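Reader question, answered in our methods column.
A reader sent in the components of a multi-part assembly and asked whether the whole thing could be modeled at once rather than chain by chain. We filled in our standard form and ran it. Here is what they sent:
COMPLEX SIZE: two components
ENTRIES:
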Amino acid sequence: MGEVMERMFRLLVSLGEIYDADRMIPVSSAQIAGVSYKSIGDPGVEFLEDYADKGAVAKIVTFLNPAGMDIEDWQDLKIPASFAEKQLRIMNAYKKMGIVVSATCTPYLAGNLPRFGEHIAWSESSAISFSNSVIGARTNREGGPSALAASLCGVTPNYGLHLDQNRHPDVLLDIHATLEDNADFGALGYMVGKQVKNRIPYFRGIKDADTDQLKALGAAMAASGAVALYHVENMTPEAHLMKIEGLEKLSVDDKDVNEVFSKLSTGKEPDIVILGCPHSSLKEVMNISRKLEGKKLRKPLWVCTSRMVKEAANRMGLTQTIEAAGGRIVADTCMVVSPIENMGYATTAVNSGKAANYLPSFCKQNVVFSRLDTLLENLT
Amino acid sequence: MELLKGRTISPGKVEGESLVSKEPIGFYGGVDPKTGLFIERGHELEGKSIKDKILVFPCGKGSTVGSYVLYGLAKNNQAPLAIVNRETETIVATGAILAGIPCVDRIPVERISTGDHLVVDATAGTVSIVKSTS
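And here is the structure of the entire assembly that came back:
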């Protein structure tokens, strides 16, 4: 136990030294990535079991990223048993450390919601982006081990986005495109992330966006680039504090957004449609369910979400509607971290800019990227 | 003897023979944690064992899972004795600390050749070239 804490603290001190932090600050919650067996492999399983056996315990509220499978329905999803055995060992190790085995990339929709200005230590790039930008909480882009260290020690080094002076925008984005579907926001995010890389964009001209659309925008920017914080004029909580005079300017119109759809679509006829990257909100599940009422799908459909949202969907009868159409709600996992490439799928259709970015490399998939209505129309 | 002064990333003091890579190293997919053998195709260290060597390279690259690979190497007794870098980024720093592998950075790594006998005092942040091969 002493050795575990010593190494974990040493890790935070070293990261603080590398990034010139002046001190440690308390954090109120952690979000840990590195949960899917597909991502962390045997080295990860052994590390987590060792630390759990040595008595490591979370000091602060700590939630987990998606796993490589639905923890309850994995057999039904035809996940290989050898994979499931390792995945369950990972979940048990985290549980032993007192970590909430939430298995979602949207902790803020599933019971871990920080307030404005709160210091947290989160990994999961889309959740980092959402908490910094939409909520105004403060976190750097943590990796799995550094988020675990913050969870066990209750502190993080004070540098980067924890400091006011590092939250200012670097580039001004003038948006002239019409953004309606959530996929439009994913396409915009993909494009902007590519261009701004790890800088902080300030968006002007986005007329309206709900939290699901901001979730899609931030997730795509964090995947194609390394954007951890963005501001949207009249929408996100720190935007009015920021000076935009003299910033480098970029502009985006409808043509730019439409080009992203064709660029990211590397396949034609999908073997499966997977929605919910990041994990669907209850509102998104309701919308999908409404569109599927009385329909029959020609291809499999997964709607990925957190266990918490799935429970609500069950209670509302949404799960039954989606299943009657031939789809299913899949909890705890998603298309990126589950082994879909070993399950006979070669082309996956998505409405997420983030998923479209990752599927070709992580899952060897051809991608069909389009708006929800188009995806569902082509399936019925 | 030449004394090079750097910065502590992970403490400890060891002595041994160096294995130098001019290219960055990504441990995930780069090194097999079970055997300690370098497996990345086309890498200048391909086929070499890093076990009990002082591994000298400019900086890390690639997947964050690399941290866990360093931990796995240590657990399987295949780890390098120490790591010496020009710039240790977070993936290698994290792995070295988790695994308890002494690690120093801000060292002019071009001064070291494969086969040099080194004393790495990572706690003090120094590397001494005791016996040079050249």
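What stands out: The longest strand of chain B covers residues 13-20. The helical segments of chain B are 66-75, 90-99.
Send us your own complexes using the same form.
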